[in-house]
């Protein structure tokens, strides 16, 4: 039975899937509005640090939904997660420390967790997936976010017996490595966005994190630190994301990467060694061969998140999860000159940006995952622009939940 038919059955039986949302910003609000039109599902809890945002979202939902709800509205995320009227929690915060606390609270309350928080997933996802799985709960990233969309294409190709050479996404924003909330302020206001979120898009952190998540879910790795990030269209991407001996930029296949020019889509590059299959792909006008690009030209971000909520409850299934130990990490790089004694802020701020590399490299070099730049983090010495940060450079806040959970993850999942 299709997901839609299962939702219709839930609607007819008045057994609605009860969704609690943490974070009522741009993504969270859009998802809440979308759920108001979905059969068999309702929003029963909304939390935001700005209580006005949470109440506005709740009012909008009840104004437009057929099934009105007595929605729990709070600036305390625990009240939503712990509510008996919530069965699946969506983390729409994008903040690693908040995400770590949401995950712990969801575990304690025996609630499934859907993440629109790539940042926490790439930091402690291997551990949290294992803990949720052992508790009989679903821990999953969200449909509609580029990692899950690309993962779907990867699974689609692999299920047909094709070799996946490259998987990735188009990058929407220009790459401005020193972008910060001030440089993004005017554009953020014009787009009704949080300036920290836009800074994380522009400085590359978000793209690195998304491809990190895809790497952890598929086993594909970045070919080089930071990936290649070529500029191209569907045809030239095939030519460039090929091996160097074939005129491309890659040292190897089995990689994740991003392309400026394919936004807002996601893609996989595939091939088949079977001559009849290759001939069929040419006949079906997939491409000229021997490599073919399978491309979805859109991703609908949080508007697709309800599909994951439905899969979790109706099928005890997921959209994207780590395959085990981390495959890659997104590590902190100084995006300005930092003076000894200064306190660093985290993702989307003024101090650091994220760059993806393999987990093995992260361990060998002692680089610090960008999600750990949280709480009270202080520079031990002067740090130059572009420095890959290590514990020689900064003092991390060992009291944060995300630090404690990452430490535990590193003990339970040694490098493979």
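Sequence proposed for the structure above (416 residues):
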């Amino acid at each position: 039975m299709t997901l839609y038919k299962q939702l219709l059955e839930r609607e007819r039986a008045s057994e609605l899937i009860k969704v609690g949302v943490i974070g009522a910003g741009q993504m969270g609000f859009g998802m809440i509005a979308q759920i108001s039109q979905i059969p068999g599902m309702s929003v029963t809890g909304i939390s935001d640090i700005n209580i006005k945002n949470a109440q506005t979202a709740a009012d909008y939902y009840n104004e437009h939904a057929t099934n009105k709800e007595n929605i729990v509205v709070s600036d305390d995320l625990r009240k939503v997660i712990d509510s008996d009227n919530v069965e699946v929690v969506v983390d729409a915060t994008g903040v690693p420390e908040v995400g770590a606390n949401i995950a712990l609270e969801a575990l304690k309350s025996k609630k499934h967790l859907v993440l629109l928080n790539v940042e926490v997933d790439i930091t402690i996802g291997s551990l949290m997936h294992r803990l949720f799985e052992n508790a009989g709960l679903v821990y999953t990233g969200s449909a509609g976010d580029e990692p899950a969309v690309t993962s779907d294409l990867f699974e689609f190709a692999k299920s047909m017996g094709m070799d996946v050479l490259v998987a990735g996404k188009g990058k929407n924003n220009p790459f401005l490595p020193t972008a910060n909330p001030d440089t993004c302020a005017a554009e953020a206001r014009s787009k009704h966005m949080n300036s920290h979120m836009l800074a994380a898009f522009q400085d590359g952190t978000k793209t690195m994190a998304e491809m990190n998540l895809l790497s952890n879910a598929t086993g594909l790795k970045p070919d080089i630190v930071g990936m290649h990030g070529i500029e191209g269209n569907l045809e030239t991407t095939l030519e460039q994301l090929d091996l160097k001996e074939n005129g491309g930029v890659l040292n190897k296949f089995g990689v994740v990467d991003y392309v400026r020019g394919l936004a807002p889509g996601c893609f996989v590059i595939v091939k088949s060694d079977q001559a009849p299959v290759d001939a069929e792909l040419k006949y079906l006008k997939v491409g000229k061969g021997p490599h073919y690009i399978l491309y979805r030209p859109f991703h609908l971000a949080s508007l697709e998140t309800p599909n994951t909520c439905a899969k979790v409850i109706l099928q005890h299934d997921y959209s994207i999860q780590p395959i085990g130990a981390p495959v890659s990490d997104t590590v902190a790089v100084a995006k300005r000159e930092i003076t000894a004694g200064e306190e660093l802020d985290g993702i989307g701020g003024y101090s650091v940006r994220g760059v993806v590399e393999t987990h093995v490299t992260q361990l060998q070099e002692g680089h610090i995952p960008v999600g750990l730049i949280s709480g009270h983090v202080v520079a031990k010495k002067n740090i130059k622009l572009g420095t890959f940060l290590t514990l020689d450079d900064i003092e991390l806040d060992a009291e944060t939940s995300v630090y404690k959970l990452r430490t535990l993850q590193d003990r339970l999942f040694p490098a493979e």
